[in-house]
Specification:
By secondary structure, the chain is mostly helical. It is 74% helix and 2% strand. It has a two-stranded antiparallel ribbon with strand order 1-2.
């Protein structure tokens, strides 16, 4: 009984340790706290994305392309096709934004493919006690990206429609009316529905990505606890090791689909929201 309680305590401590961010206080340590590991990996992956894209663009050849150029061209064509299918206005912003979102979200999600103890173990030798390596498992990242998309959508709607039509649609859609009295009566309902619609967009964008990545990270941690603190001399350890390997392999194979799908969904919803922003009701 005592041994089981000790193992449970070790597993709980292990999980809590892996779910803590490397933080720093801003100013006097009041309200603001920065997750340093999230910021570091986000900037690192954004720099990697820019480096690869710029390198391929500068070295692009009209002849037989190399493997890297071919791979990047496939991604660009895929994103460009998705934009053309869903966004029917003319814009120089939407396609590059969609490409950036897809690649950056995928890279941040892909950090979940590293063994859960590898980078934290390496960081511990540098004196870093806590380290989380998946930026999209941090709600600050996903909500920040969703809010950026939200503000760009509002800006784009005003730019395409003008401030007059943009404000008018807030009070006249989705319930349309022809007479002035009917428009006034329906305006509060239209305004309420518009507010709900606009609030739901960043919330759903951020929580969907965060929830999937947090759950994926947690499952990898739980799989790692299957042999936590076990002795190699124990028969139970040798019985659990194949199960742990099989579980890890299956979840990794499935999670590759999850991280790609979540990047695609975030990109596609952004395109759809931009498409709705330019439609005149």
């Amino acid at each position: 009984m005592a041994a089981a309680e000790h193992e449970a305590a070790n597993a709980s401590e292990y999980i809590n340790h892996h779910l803590k961010f490397l933080t720093t206080k801003v100013g006097d340590g009041g309200f603001w706290t920065l997750n340093v590991d999230t910021i570091f990996f986000k900037l690192l992956l954004a720099s990697l994305f820019l480096f690869i894209i710029l390198k391929v663009a500068r070295n692009a050849s009209s002849g037989v392309p190399g493997k890297l150029q071919t791979f990047i061209e496939m991604i660009v064509e895929f994103v460009d096709g998705s934009v053309k299918d869903s966004f029917h206005a003319h814009s120089k912003l939407v396609a590059p934004l969609a490409l950036t979102i897809f690649c950056l979200v995928f890279l941040m999600n892909f950090m979940d493919m590293f063994p859960v103890d590898l980078l934290p173990w390496a960081a511990s030798h540098a004196g870093v006690h806590y380290l989380r390596v998946v930026p999209t498992a941090d709600l600050n990242t996903t909500l920040g990206m969703a809010l950026c998309v939200f503000m760009l959508i509002q800006y784009y709607g005003i730019k395409h429609k003008g401030i007059g039509l943009f404000v008018a649609e807030i009070f006249t859609a989705p319930f349309h009316a022809h007479g002035p009295i009917a428009k006034i009566l329906l305006a509060p309902a239209n305004f309420l529905l518009r507010i709900i619609e606009e609030v739901v967009r960043p919330v759903s964008l951020s929580l969907r990505l965060f929830g999937n990545m947090y759950a994926g990270e947690l499952i990898f941690i739980l799989i790692a606890t299957m042999t936590l603190g076990s002795s190699l001399a124990s028969a139970g350890t040798w019985a659990m090791m194949p199960m742990q390997f099989i579980s890890g392999f299956i979840w990794t194979a499935f999670h590759v689909l999850v991280i790609t799908l979540q990047a695609f969904i975030f990109m596609m919803l952004t395109i759809v929201y931009f498409s709705g922003a330019v439609q005149k009701h």
